[in-house]
């Protein structure tokens, strides 16, 4: 018997396909750009952190795909913030987990991103908004740790 366990890449591909169908590929160009960026983050996660129950690929895929939509300026970072996390802490976690300066601003008005990006994301992820938010928080925490590990191994200063 051969059992195929879905990988992070297969989960990301599935989310991309579902999101594309639900949005009639309206954001295909932005999502394609985001996918490229997310692949680099996925490699960082897979290469530096062992897989375990808490770190299942579906959870990382939800977080990475949603964060890719932030990078593509289709969602505001604030729209993915869990209620228990302070806004300043959330932005700092994002910056530290992405090794970036500023948080990219959303290019869409709230009425559009909520209905045409966030809702299809939730349906694509087969999750609640809270589960997507938790996946983002978990994924960013793991990315921050992976970047810190990489900097320590290379003898560099702490991640920005």
> What percentage of residues falls in helices of 4 or more residues?
55-70%
The largest sheet is:
none
What's the number of helices? Answer: 6
Rounded average pLDDT:
89
Shape: globular
Could you list some keywords that capture this structure?
single chain; 160 residues
Can you describe this structure in just a few lines?
It contains six helices and no strands. With 160 residues, it is mainly α.
Describe the protein's architecture and organization.
This protein has 160 residues and is mainly alpha-helical. 65% of the residues lie in helices and 0% in strands. The longest helix is centred in the C-terminal third of the chain and has 26 residues, at 129-154. It starts with 7 loop residues before the first helix and ends in a 6-residue tail after the last helix.
Layout of helices and strands, plus pairs?
Elements: H1 8-22, H2 28-48, H3 57-71, H4 87-98, H5 110-124, H6 129-154
